[in-house]
Design a protein that fits this description.
Elements (H helix, E strand, L loop, with lengths): L15 H4 L19 E3 L19 E3 L3 E10 L3 E4 H4 L7 H8 L3 E4 L6 H16 L8 E5 L10 H7 L7 E5 L5 H16 L3 E9 L17 E11 L6 E8 L7 E2 L2 E3 L4 H4 L13 E3 L3 E2 L1 H23 L8 E4 L4 H11 L10 H4 L6 H11 L8 E8 L3 E8 L2
Helix pairs in contact: 4-5, 8-9
Bound molecules: coenzyme A.
Coenzyme A binds next to helix 3 and helix 8.
Length: 402
């Protein structure tokens, strides 16, 4: 809620006491109305025994009619690389300022004939290959993006680019930097509730299209990329989504937005002698990204740890039991602050922000893909993932890789 007296933004965070009630019976998840259910307890971590002192509360039982697991990932980046030194030729900044305040050293930017759908399809192909799933076996493609090549959505275009002869359902999810996390939970909902088997979740954004490249307060932060994960149905006892926690608070929109505006002049209409006031409407276009960096920073370091703690509590897992902390890659200082609050040591924190900047919906699957392919994240390991950004929307999920 906005604090009217101070003018400071303070997103409302549900009180955990109400959000995570003590165990009173079987909690009713969102998927309960679709199909026969089995009760399963928060899956134990296969290779680790949580320390006895770490959690005093019992695991929260979950109703899971159908399990889902992450079986493949892929990513793609544009070829054009822009370093901090390159940026300092356009705006009054320096590598020292950017890397100290954000941890970012370089970013990739779509250029020339590159487009976001191609990039997303590249990432998707790699995820399908790793999962050993044919494009024709896909049931659903979720394209999480706020910067599609077409305002009406890019999901069907990616279905076409992948050559899916079976025409699986494909649509977009718009939730800025939280987009991938929401896509992941949506994929699980479709699998658990609707019987889908193979769901491709793509996070892809080209924020460079909406950045004011003369504004040093914002242009230094963002980059373009695509990442994808294949989520597959499995037996409930193999379920790889232990818990999640999601939030939105529209009162923070003013601190991070790319809003629509009517163009000042429209020659075609000005000469049309229209007799109805304000009709036809003038052509509209999107303004550049507007951000209050300090407020967004404060929101992230406050709300993200709370969300992860809530998801961990729902999963019945202590923070000490997770193998990896994987946050939306926005600012290294945000990542460090959240890790410190959760007491997760830096060697268990995934970060590739230095090379790519904030790639919005792509950042989590891009970082996951690099960590998996480099051998860092191994099958069976547990990840606490969290996204946050414009909307405002934020949330977290406790997942198992593979
Ligand atoms: N290079 C050099 N100086 C810069 C600069 C740049 N790129 N950007 C801002 N400055 C200057 C400011 O003008 C200001 O100068 P002043 O003290 O003379 O007025 C000074 O540096 C401090 O600016 P400030 O905005 O207070 O810096 P900050 O420490 O808050 O860092 C951000 C700015 C944007 C890096 C930081 O607020 C941030 O990362 N916020 C979160 C943004 C985010 O993650 N958004 C996406 C979420 S999904």
């Amino acid at each position: 809620m906005a604090n009217a007296s101070s003018g400071l933004f303070s997103p409302s965070v549900p009180n955990l006491r109400f959000k995570v009630p003590p165990f009173l019976g079987i909690p009713i998840p969102r998927f309960d109305r679709f199909s026969p259910k089995v009760v399963c307890f928060a899956a134990p971590i296969p290779h680790k025994t949580p320390p006895a002192s770490a959690s005093s509360s019992p695991s929260q039982p979950r109703l899971v009619s159908q399990g889902c697991k992450l079986v493949g990932c892929g990513s793609a980046i544009p070829s054009l690389q822009i370093s901090n030194d390159d940026l300092s030729k356009f705006v009054d900044t320096s590598d020292e300022w950017i890397s100290t305040r954000t941890g970012i050293r370089s970013r990739r930017v779509l250029s020339g004939k590159d487009n976001l759908s191609n990039l997303a399809a590249d990432a998707a192909r790699k995820a399908l290959e790793m999962a050993n799933v044919d494009p024709d076996d896909l049931d659903l493609i979720l394209m999480c993006t706020s910067t599609p090549d077409d305002l009406f959505g890019s999901g069907p275009q990616i279905q076409k680019e992948l050559g899916c002869k079976t025409n699986p359902l494909a649509y977009d999810i718009t939730a800025a930097c939280s987009g991938f996390l929401l896509g992941l939970i949506s994929a699980a909902s479709h699998i658990r509730g609707s019987g889908f088997k193979n769901v491709l979740v793509i996070g892809a954004d080209a924020i460079s299209r909406y950045v004011d490249w003369t504004d040093r307060g914002t242009c230094i932060l963002f980059g373009d990329a695509a990442g994808a994960v294949l989520v597959q149905a499995c037996d409930s006892d193999e379920d790889g989504l232990f818990s999640f926690d999601l939030h939105s608070d529209g009162s923070g929109l003013r601190h991070l937005n790319v809003s629509i505006k009517q163009n000042d002049s429209n020659d075609a209409l000005d000469s049309s002698n229209g007799s109805v006031l304000d009709f036809p409407p003038r052509l509209s276009s999107y303004s550049c990204l507007q951000m209050n960096g300090k407020e967004v920073f404060r929101f992230a370091v406050r709300c993200v740890p709370q969300s992860i703690e809530c998801a961990l509590e729902k999963a019945g897992l202590p923070a000490s039991s997770i193998d990896w902390l994987l946050l939306h890659q926005a600012n290294q200082r945000i990542i460090d602050a959240v890790a410190t609050r959760l007491e997760v040591p830096s060697e268990r924190v995934i970060s590739n922000l230095a090379n790519y900047g904030n790639t919005s919906a792509a950042s989590i699957p891009l970082a996951l893909d690099e960590a998996v392919r480099s051998g860092k994240v191994k099958a069976g390991q547990t990840i606490a993932a969290a996204g946050f950004g414009a909307g405002l929307t934020w949330g977290s999920a406790i997942i198992r890789w593979g």
